[in-house]
Amino acid sequence: MLDPDRVRHDDLRGGTPPWHTMLQRPTRRRIEESFRCGVLVVGAGITGSLAAEHLACLGHDVCVIDRQRPGFGSTTASTAMLLWEIDRSLTELTDLYGFERAANIYRRSEAAVGGLMQLVAARGLVCGMSPRHSLYLAAGESGPRELRAEHDLRARVGLPGELLDHPALLREFGIHREAAIVSPGSSDADPVLLSHALLAEAVRQDAKLFDAHAIGYDSSSDAVIVVLDEGHVIEAKHVVLATGYVMPDILTSDLHKVVSSWAIATPPQQPETIWRDKALIWEASEQYNYLRATPENRIVIGGEDDDTVVEPEARDALMPAKARVLREKLKALWPRAEAMAEFVWSGAFGTTIDGLPLIGPVPGHPRIHAAYGYGGNGITYSYLASRMIAASIAGDRKPWFDDFAIDRDAPKEC
Questions:
Q1: DSSP tag of 4
Q2: Model confidence pLDDT, tens digit, residues 39-87
Q3: Which architecture does CATH list for 131-185+255-352?
Q4: Bridge partners, 187 (sequence order)
Q5: Which residues are CB-contacts of 271 (< 8 A; sequence separation ≥ 6)?
Q6: Collapsing DSSP states into helix, strand and coil, what is residue 62?
Q7: Closest by CA position to 7, among listed 38, 39, 41, 43
């Protein structure tokens, strides 16, 4: 397991992704003395950046701390495919929690992607965000039948999407699979630029960004006392834990586990060799691969997830072998690609056994709020978490927040 007091950026991800990490560098101040604030956000990656921007916009006295460069941990490892479709299909989620609950969860996810796109447009954030369709490909012999059932269930919910059979998929996208669901409403972006732009916006709205390492939390009084490694303390009315995939000791969950993933990015391709509309491609299987194209026409393909290899050295040692597998899968799915790996990287991410995030008050610590376990929907759930946590801080907790509660019961079928 990763020790939260020892983990560094290189433990969370390895290799080099293609994102524009040199264009913006948020400036952190050092903490010279103890102080008080309204809301302390611990972690300055994409989750912390979204929370800080939103809370500052609402008028809270916000401080953000990170012991390392903001956005260069788990955020850098993201492929930033902002899908509203989640790791558990609507069919699977219905089997776990019933149709109404599953339908509402999918609606929340769809609204989260739409909300994030609106935020980026309204703030004028420069992050390469573009609206995309998603292309959900059938996998295996039973794939077409299962995909039709999934499409029919989505139609009952009112979710957008069209079922394509093999001839239609080949005609429209040039892909040889038995079937697919094509749906509007997703997007993609440069995750590091997005995180840094949000942080800059938070600072513009008077949030403060510090270089600091939290080593202890005491919420036994009317405030949370956060102890820093250099001896100072921060007294906050509320704390938001946004520390990537590594949980502090005060937080545990039987639903959560750490998984390793790998990705490659090709050299820029000729525009005519990219599939239609740069749709976000992923597969209807438990161990799925996923593809997107960047504004520079690089093809990014990732996957090959493994929950048995989570130590950083072992994970990163597999990068050459995983890159070969990903290149072969890219060539099989999209033969037009120049299937070279100009960038190769790996990352650790948190997921849950039911495919839903862990968002809300930390059990036993009502003034400490947390957001973890995102699986393949990292930035989508980060946006949702920022809105849920802000509502909870304002005393406006909704009943549906229980769907993502940190201490929710695991479904028996998992």
A1: T
A2: 999 999 999 999 999 999 999 999 999 988 887 777 888 999 999 999 8
A3: 2-Layer Sandwich (3.30)
A4: 82, 131
A5: 297
A6: strand
A7: 43
